[in-house]
Each structure stands twice: as C-alpha cells, then as structure tokens.
Amino acid sequence: MYQFTVTSWNVRGIRSQAKKIKIFDYVSRLNADIVFFQETHLLKSEEKSLTDSNFNKIYNSCFNSRQRGVSVLLNKRLPVNIISSVIDPEGRYIIIKVVIYNKCFTILNLYAPNNDDPDFFHRIFSELSDLSADSSLIIGGDFNLALNTSLDRSSKCSNTKPSRSAKVLIDYMEDLGIGDVWRLNNPTKKEYTFFSPAHKSFSRIDFFLSNNSIIHKMSSKIHPIIISDHAPISLTLQCDSNQKVSSLWRFNTSLLNDSEFEKIIRKEWEDFLLTNDSPEISPSLLWETGKAVIRGKIISYSSFKKKQEQIAEKTLEEKIKKLTEEYAANPSELLWEKLQNTKLNLDIILSKKTDFILQQLRYKNFDYNNKSGKYLANQLKHNKENSFIATISNNSGQTLNLPQDINKIFRDYYQNLYSSNLNPDTEDIKTFLNKLNLPQLTIDQKTTLDSPLTLQELQNALDSMSTGKAPGPDGFPAEFLKHFWSMLAPLFFRVVTEIKNKGYVGGHMNTANIKLLLKPDKNPMLPSSYRPISLINTDLKIISKALTSRLEKVVQSIIHQDQTGFIKNRHSTDNVRRLFNVINMAQNSKKKKIILSLDAEKAFDRVNWSFLLTVLGKFGFGESFIQWISTLYNKPKASVTTNQITSQSFTLQRGTRQGCPLSPLLFAIFVEPLAAAVRQNSVIKGIHSSISEHKINLYADDILLYLEEPQSSLEEVFNLINSFSKLSDYSINWTKSSILPLTKNSWNPANQNPQHPSTTNTIKYLGLNISPNLNELIKLNHDPMLDKVTEDLRRWNNLPISLLGRIASVKMKILPKINYLFSMIPLKPPKQWFQRLDSATTKFYTRNKKPKISLSTLQKNKDEGGLEAPNFMHYYLANQILYLTEWLKPKEYYNTWLEIEQLDCKHIKLSDLPFITATLKHHNCFKNPLIASTLTAWWKALDITNVQLKISILSPIWHNPDFKNKKTPLYLKTWEESGITHLQDLFENDKIRPYNNLTQAFDINKSNFLQYLQVTETIKKNTPLDLTTLQPPELAIYMKKISTKSKKLSKIYRALSNTNCNYLPIAKWEAELSITPSTDFWTEICCNTFKMTKNTNLQLIQYKVLHRSHTTQQKMHKMGFLATDICSQCTQNTADSYLHALWLCSPVQHFWILITEKLSSILDCRIPLSPNLCLIGDLTMLQLPANQSQSILAALAIAKKTILLNWKDKKSLNINQWQNLLTEFISMEKMSALRKQKKITCFEERWTPFLIALNLNF
C-alpha cells in the first residue's frame, strides 16, 4: 500500500517570517507531500523565501505587484519525476505533469478571480487539454465559487444562484469526467473553507477535483481555519500495490520510423528462423515463439533507448548533488563555478527536451488543428472517462466498486454468456431446415470458396485493415505486420496452411481480449448494458478477413432482400422506406394490422455453432469452407479487461465475436432460416398489397414483423421462434419486444397472453422513433435531435478552434447525425426547424458574435469564395433525391418498397415521375407522403439550379397527366406494346417522325392515322414538338447517369451546391485595384488560398483578407465607435479604408517594399510591389514554377499575418518578425513533409531557395 497527500491552502500572503514558520509547521503536521499555496503575494525577486528543507522542488507564479501568486512545493521524500510545467505569468495558476509511483498525473494549482469570470476557466481547461492526455488529473486551490450554493454556503448567505463561472466549471467537470472529491465523499455534509468577516458568512470555495475513475481511492479533509482566513484542505490518494493491473503489451508504432530498430528486428527474425526453423517444429509453434522473441526484443530495445535518454541527466544530477555537498562543507570559488557549470549543462539538456515537446505540439497544431480527424475529435469529445466502470451490481443486486470485484463480475458474466447449455441434435436441425425452401450456392461459387487461401489474398486482407486500431492480446497491430510483411509472410503462409490441415488454431492466436462499451441510454450498473468488443490478434484477423472477402461476394445470392444488415449494396434506408410504405398502406385498410418489434437477447453472443455449421451445409457451402469456420470456432478463448485489470482467459462455446470480420455475415446466414420460416409459414399472415405480402424486415438482429390477423399470427410467431431457439440458442426477450397497432382496434391488450409483448404507441427501430401516424415523425425525431445538436454546439462554443475548425466540427460531428435523419425520414421538417439549426451553427461559427461573412457565403464551394460549410436544406434535398435515383434504376435493382410505391402510381412508372410536371400533385401517387416528399424535393432542386420543370423528350406519353385528351390521359395499348413510350420515340433526326416512318419503325398498323393525329395534337397543346425545347434538365440526365453508381449523396449535394458564381466582394476589389478580370480569375484566386499550404491558420488569414473581414478605423467610424475615419497610424490624413490599412498606410507600404525586395533576392527574380499579388494573390504577373508560386503565396500570407499582429500599432512592423514567422512556418512544413515521407521532394522543390537564402538548417 502506498499513498501521498496533497494540501492546498490560500495563505493570504506569506512574506512575514513569523507567518511563514507557522504555515510550514502546520503543513508539516499535515504530512503533506505536495503543497498548493494561493495568494502568496510574492514578487519574482522574493521566490526564494519559500525555500524549506523538506521541499526540494518549488514552482512559483508571481504577479507584477503584491497580489495573487501561486506556488507548488514537492516534498523531497516523494518519488516524483517532472515531465513538463506551465507557469501563468499573471500569478493565477501552475500546471505540472509528473510521474509519481510510476503513475502519471497532471496537477493544477489555481487561484481563480474573485469576480464572476467564466473565461478564466475556459482558458485553464484549454491549457489542460493537451497536457492532461494519458494522465490523471488533480486540480486544487481557491476557486472563488461554490459548486452547490445550498450546501457550500452558510444559511446567512442570500445568493442561491450558481455563478456563470460555476456553470462553466460544472460543464467541464461533466465533459472531462471529473468530480469534487470532498463532496463525493460527503454528499450532504456542510463544512466550509472560508470565512468572510465583511459578510459574516462561511463558504466552501477551496476544493479538489479529480478523475471519477480514481476518486474511490481518495479521501479529502477540511482543516480548521487558522492563520489565514481560508482553511487548508488535504487530499490523500491510496493505491493497493498488489492490485493486478493489466499487463497487456502494445507495440509502439512510432518505432517503425526508427531505421536502427528496423535493422535489429529484421536481423533478430533472420537469426531466429536460422536457429529454430526445422521440419520437427510446427509452423504454428514457430510463429508463436517468434512473436514472443520479437516482443522481447522490442521491449528490450525500447527500455535501452529510454535509459540512454536519461543517463546524461542522471549523471549530471549526481554530479550536482556531490558538488553541492562538497561546497556546503568547504565553500570555494572553484567548487561554486563547477556547480554552476554543471547546472547549466543539465539545464541545456532539459531545455532541449522541453523544446522538442513544444515542437511536437506546434507540429500537431500546424498539421492537424482545425481539420476533421482525431486531433479535432479529441477536443470535441464528451466525457473522456466514460470507459471507466465505477460500480456494478452483482446477481444479488449488491453494488460493488473495487476494480478487482468489478472485473470478476464481468468475467463471470461473459463466461456464462458464452457457455452453451444447448447441444441440439444435428438431425433435428436438418429436419427443421429441410422443411424450408432455401437457396443454394452454385457449383462455381462453392468451388471458389473451397479453394485454398493464397498469399495474395492474405496480403490484400492485411492491406485493407485500418491503422490506429487497438491490437489483440499479442500486442502487434496491423501497422507492424504491414511494415514487416515481406519478412513475416513466408512463415505466416505456412501457418495458415497448417491451421487448415489440422483444423485447429494453436497457441494464443485464437485468444481475444474483450473491451466494453456502454450502450446508449442503458443502466451502467448492469453487466448486460455493455457491448463487448473482441480485440482479436491481427494474424487471426488476416485469415478471417480473407475468408470474409470471399464470402461477401456470394452472400447476396443466398440471403433474401428482407435482410439488409452488412450485406453489400443493401442499406438500412431500404428497411425504413419499406416500413413507412407499409404503415401508409395500412392506413387505408380496415383489416387489423400490427407491427411486432422483436428484441433479441445478445443475438451475436448466442449463436450456436452446431446450428451455424449445419445451416452453412444447407445453403450449399463446401466442406473446405465449413472446415475453416469450424476451425476458427474450435475452442477460442477470451479475457475481459475493465479499469486496466485483465481477467484470466476462459473458453468460448458459442457466439460470433463482435470484432471479427466474419461475424456480421455469419450472423446473417445464421438468422436467415428463421426469416425464411416466417415467410414460408402460411399461418403467419403478413400485410398484403394488391400483388404481394410483406412479413419481415431485418437489419442484422433488428427484426420487424408485419402482421395481419394478429392474434393467430402472433401465436404462430411465438411457437416458431420457440422451436428455432431450441435448436439455435437464439432467444427473444418478449418483455422488451413490443406491438405497434397500425389500425384502430387491431390489438386488444386485455386479451393478450401474459407472455406476449406489450402494446405501445411508438417503437424504436434503427435509432428512430416510429409512430403509426407518419405526421408525428418530425416531432418524435427531428425536434429532439435539434435540441441535442444545439446543446453540443453550445458546449463547444468556447473551445479554442478557428472558423475552419468549427466548420470541420459541424461536418464531422453534427452533419452525420442530421444526414441520418434526412436519409431515413423523407418528410420535410418545417422552415422554422431549418432556421433554428442554421442559427445554432452560425452562433457556433462566430462565437456568438455578429457574423462578418454570411452563412450562405460560408456554405458555398471553396472555389466560389466559400468554406463548404454544410447547407442542411441542400442535404435534405440530396437525401430525398437519392430515393429518386432508386426509381430511375433498371428493374433488376428493384427493392420491395419500390414495388409498393409503384402500385400507388398505378400505370405511371416510377422511373417516369421525375419527367412529369407538377400536374402530378393531382395524381393518386401524390397521396403517398413518401412519393410526394421525394417529388417535392426534386422540384425544389430544379428550382435551386435555375431549371424550369417542363415536358421533355424523356416524358412518358401514356397515362401522363400532362397529356390529356378530353380530360383523360393518353393511352394506346398497341403503341405501348410496340415500344412507343416516351416523347423521344416520336422523333428522328431532330424532327417529329412522319406517320409512315413511325408505323415502319415500330411496326404499327397503318390504319391508325387518326390515333397518330390524336397523340401529336394532344401533345402540341402542351408543348411545341421541337426537339430543341424538349431537352431534359441536365440535373435529370445526371441523376440517370449516377443512379447505379456509389457515393451518390455527395455527388447530388455537389450538383445542388455548384452555382458557377463567386461570392467574394469582387466589386470592391476591382474598383480599388482598377482591374476587370474574368470570373475564372477569381475562381483561381479562391483556389490558391487552399493550395498554398495545408495549414488551416494561414489559409484562414488569406480567406479573411479576400473577404475584407478585418475591422478598419473607417469601419469603426461608420459603426459609431470612432469620431473620425482618418488613419491614426500615418501622416497621410486619409481615411483608413481596407486597402489603406493593408497596403497604402506609410509603415505598411514600407513593410511591403522590404518584403518584395527580400523575396526578389531569395528567388533571384523580380517580385513586383503590387497589391494584386501581395493582397489577393494574383500570380498572373509572375513567371515561376507552380511549386514556387505556392511558396510565394505562403510567404505573402505570412506578411499579412505580420500586419494583422501589429494591426493597432503598425509602426512596430519589421521584417525580422516576418522572417521569424516564415522560418517557423518552413520548419513546420518540413516536419510535416518528413512525416509523410513522399512529400519531402515537393517540400524541397518549393522551399530550397528560402532555405539557402535564409541560411536555414533544420
């Protein structure tokens, strides 16, 4: 058992020697290992006054007067290693990252302002965001606020409302998963840390915050208020050193960039094979032993490197200690000089380490900041400690909180879950399956699946794996195997061959580690509320992935279209569209109809392997492929990790592991016989259309049943599933399943069997709230989503991210959620809903300030002067038009919902709807709200792209409400059967076909001339029969073209967003610069903004300059904030216009002269002193290679950054500042290029002249 104690105390000044003695004496009595002082009131020159024999490491933050001041003191007995520190220059806080007892902590001592200042806490937690990664937090000090006004203030205090600062702090506590240590240990107790003589009141404003994951190891105490008007408070952290912490090793992928490491590993593997590879040793044993040897070598190498890095520091520390002792015993000038030089050498080493860390942080900020990806996602992440399980309930309902007990509960739970008490007879399974009409694989498909796995297939499987994923128990991620594949592949291929031949995966290859994720809206106290993710070893995953690649090519031929989960080219949107069509169809029926939503209990985890293998045989899979599946499920093992504790492994007896590439497809095959049994059971009555019956929808284990005659149908479903469960281990939780009545009196709960599911007004399906009244879908789904999105945006508002980062945040975190609703629910939300969403995103983009660039401009394409912020209305339209592209597909692509919608269209084909005008509003099809929504979206899209909805050559002739003869749409059956269906059939060589030509071309009876006249005259009444005026809209042609393509949503959205206009303030620029260029010129200017660098900060500077969004004195005058618009930074006595501020102002003009001269010297060519080039980036006046043109633009953007940094004091502008910023930028560009390897050549081509001229050597 070890422990350490942190004491925090607002001392209200520690300058007096007498007071200092009293304070340190008391701190000593409290046995403090770490001390936080606030309000030291020390000047920089007085820092040494805190020196004490017990504290050998002291950090101070002093203010420029005898105010504020915080200090952190570390006791010399504490085994502490300092990693980094941040000292606030204003005397408010100190942050130190330390390692204590081999555990990493970030400790923060703060003294908050005594006024309500929420920005202080935003700044503090922004500082913490990078430093606190991979460490536990301990935050203490004087917060100058009460978290709970009813408990933390005495009754004499009248103010009961929490301050703005308190609200912000509470938000951060929730986001970061941290809590008030004393309060969590004393939920209702009243005790105070501060007495206010002026108000004669007490409050608890001094406290500690720490991670919820370690608070159970902490105790906190408030001591008497003595010496100061604040009480000292203490926190003690205890940890059982015998606790079994997870020892799972994980390869550090950064070693792959170490050439020395690569040579060592390759040599080690070569020597290992040379020594051990022989016919007597099985390839599997050799492989597992080889992994162990390589793992040991990696650990040894990493340890050696770490020791090498520390040896110089330790040597110097020992020397300093010895010299200090010698000098203390016998002071001399020589010893003093040696001691100071040694300290200087150590300081140089530490400074280099600090500089390296800062450089890495600057690189991350340069390359990843404000871009979609992990870096930004971590900033937005909510509740970073949600993987920690603080408490859990056992089977008796007892609450356990010790990590070892929690781990045991989960191990027992999963061991029981994956144990099968069912051992069905194979003949019984076959009897059940033989009653079903199941499809069979073809001979070719079977042969392909049964052929031996090739080395190329294994490599393809490895190449397809994502990087950055957690490895299995062996610790080797995909990156390691990819990097050393040429070295490892020969032996691994032998291993795969041996596994296939022996039918067993040896060693630890088939062991997985189970990590847990809490399911949304589930009780965290129950083990069943967590989703188990099996981390499988990469080598086994390669085999599974290769088999999956084969299986996914044939699975569509044996799995019915009712199942859309994880099947290639099938989508959950098909299920939902069908569901809504069935609901709509039921509204017009008097028959009793219900939807039964089934809740499968741990469906993936209860798959019986005997049943699965028998089903594979029934579908016609060959012996070899079935053997592969049998081998992979031959005594696999798993362990469970919770709170960094890993259990003993146990053997699995059933289930498909969530994390194995094969699992989704195997589950689809496993559950298909149940779906087939439902479809083929005549007692179970589905909901009928005029031509078909709809019974079942499946998305993996999410199942809906559409039932008529619900009483008898439900009983048969109940019996069928019970029969299926006895053979397969599949189980339905009937109490969590639900019945949704679709028609009045279709189900009477009073008469139902107690075992039947309960009746409900709504059901949850694929994350959507479903009602039998389709008009309620917006209220049930879109409104709650909008509230959640608004709250997320509010929570992120004060994060230190730029406009580009904010747009990226919305696209990464908000847009997918909104798009999901748009893709699933065709009904259009009201105008106010879109307005609220746009308002919330605008406030987020502008940090609640008045926007300088309109939202509509930000939503435009980058080459049009926008930043491609999402236009949610356009995304809604694009998602609806996706369904229209399904209408346009050839018939072989038809889905079940298409069949229902075609019935509502009667004689008009779905594929013809986009080419008929708004007369469709009066057609029967428009009564279907799904068709109506899609058509309305289509018409709106045409309007947005400035296209008139009109008759075209693609318009149908028959049953078209646009072509009516005596109020009846045209229809000639013989003509239709002859192939005359659309207006284009009436034309040849751009002219209407003469009657004789038409009869010959389509083999029509020549006695039909009157019909010919009737058709042509009826059409002429509505549109001239002139081919030039009958061309279909380009958007319609494009939709037909992409109807069978992938990634259609983004293509449709781009088609709606392209305006071929530019939204820069072009008129102002052209007037001031006296230019009249083409639109293409401004398009190129916009594109150059994002081509010159990948760094978003520099891109944004240039973007804002192009939009003239910086505030000048002229603008301030117009807004009424200044009495005059005359520039105060030069003697020209002229208005401070935008051009003046960035170009004509005397100090700015002088600065630009120096910049262009310097650039001319660097590139050995004339760089003109022109605002066209320097301000807007007009490259037409330069004759330079493309790469160097981009470097010129970057250098000029940095010059504009320099001007903006000196915006209020332009007389301070100097070229040295620009050169320093440019040097830093080039340094970051090189680091970025080196990290991306292939980019280094491009970097050298672009920046070599600068490196030479500026004498830069990074």
From TrEMBL:
GO terms for molecular function: catalytic activity. It holds the Pfam family RVT_1. It comes from the Eukaryota. Residues 498-770 form the Reverse transcriptase domain. SUPFAM superfamilies: DNA/RNA polymerases, DNase I-like. This is Reverse transcriptase domain-containing protein. It comes from Gouania willdenowi. The lineage of its organism: Eukaryota, Metazoa, Chordata, Craniata, Vertebrata.
